[in-house]
Amino acid sequence: MRVLPLVSIILPTYNRADTIQRAIASVQAQTYADWELIVVDDGSTDETVALIEGCDPRLKLIRQQNQGTAGARNTALRASTGAYIAFLDSDDEWLPHHLELCVGFLEAFPEEGFVTNELWEDFGQGRIVKHYRVEISDWYPTTARHIDSRLFDLPVGEQDDHLRVYRSRQPIGDWGRAIVARTPYDNVFHYRGQIFEHMRFGFLMCLQPTVIRREAFEAVGYFDTSYYGASDFGFTVELCRRFPANYLSIPACIKHELTGDGGMPCEDHVATGKTGLICLQDLLRFLEHFWGDRRDDPEVRVQRGMRELHIARVALGRNERAIALRYLEAARRDLPESTRVRNLDWLIRLLPGERLACQVYNAFTRAVDVGRRLLRNELSVAVLFRKLGDRLARRKLDPAT
């Protein structure tokens, strides 16, 4: 009789007292119960540990000094015992069918290394982005057309955007049909293919809705702790380099930008908060390794230049003028004909001082964003003037703001 749990769930956390209970509750609500949950508290200074300690006999809590997300995941992996490994972040939650459906798939297809599902990102107030439908149907094909790449072209006669990336589409078999029938989702298919080459455009899967075999983890190895924010991308790229990707077109995980009561988390999100610029730099550094000896290929150079320009713009928006100039210089080499690169470089060098260019750029980007939102009817003129009035009132009370 097997004693060890079949699924080991890897959950790193740092100062997530305002979100971690939601994440753990979503694990406890799974329709599949043969799991162990390994929570690595990565040096939290809030009430995270007090809130979760002893909340479930299947929860194994490990405390360590802060080592970053990659180090925390590696600690959990070393302590794991399951034949399958799943990942969850402490500000996200799973939908109840996730583990049952993934385990059903891996049991039915013992030759496959991993399976992944959709991740939906919830920004609050009803705004949800459905990953990775939007990347496959819009973002990456648009970028590919911009750089004259045919990588995301649809096969002749096809209209299913998933087939821009995956080679085959099959209905859900006996292993999962009853599970899907209990959910509110329809038109669910199993897609399969070698998507490694497509990953150079960016994320096409992520860890939170993914379950892998232990043998697949052993082939890929531990997370690279030299990357602060891109270690998860590197891990998924290595998975796709070594194994075909299996994708089930059903949401399995919700990535939350807000807490349960609709507020901002006390600790920033790694990829979008105060460390967001570091994450972008790490992602480019990993992609440099990924591109390897193709770095001078015209298509790769354009991709690299677009990322360098993006980093420069983010750096400028965060008052990091020196970093912005460094990445603009690189972007000028890779995108010598780009007017956007030249104009931004001109702005930084023309305006004196460290902060003035940043302030002008931020004012311009805010104005452009407001204009776009007005055109899309996402913002009314009345609301805009009310917000401007509130900001002016705050400045009168506190000129430092």
Structure notes:
By secondary structure, this protein is of the alpha/beta class. The chain folds into 2 domains: 250 residues, Spore Coat Polysaccharide Biosynthesis Protein SpsA, Chain A; 75 residues, Serine Threonine Protein Phosphatase 5, Tetratricopeptide repeat (Alpha Horseshoe). 43% of the residues lie in helices and 16% in strands. It contains 14 helices and 11 strands. Strands 1, 2, 3, 4, 5, 6, 7, 8, 9, 10 and 11 form an 11-stranded mixed sheet that branches. Helix 7 packs across helix 8 and helix 10 runs antiparallel to helix 11. It is globular. It starts with 6 loop residues before the first strand and ends with a helix. The model has no long low-confidence stretch (mean pLDDT 89).
**What is the CA–CA distance across the termini?**
65 Å
| Unreliable spans | none
Residues in β-strands, percent? 15-25%
Q: H/E order of the elements?
A: EHEHEHEEHEEHEHEEHHEHHHHHH
CATH homologous superfamily of the largest domain - what is it?
Spore Coat Polysaccharide Biosynthesis Protein SpsA, Chain A
Global structural class: alpha/beta
Radius of gyration: 23 Å
Q: What is the number of beta strands? A: 11
Number of domains: 2
**CA-based shape:** globular
Q: What's the CATH topology name of the largest domain? A: Spore Coat Polysaccharide Biosynthesis Protein SpsA, Chain A
Indicate the CATH class of the largest domain.
Alpha Beta
pLDDT averaged over residues = 89
Helix content: 40-55%
CATH architecture of the largest domain: Alpha-Beta Complex
Largest beta-sheet details:
11 strands, mixed
How large is the count of helical segments?
14
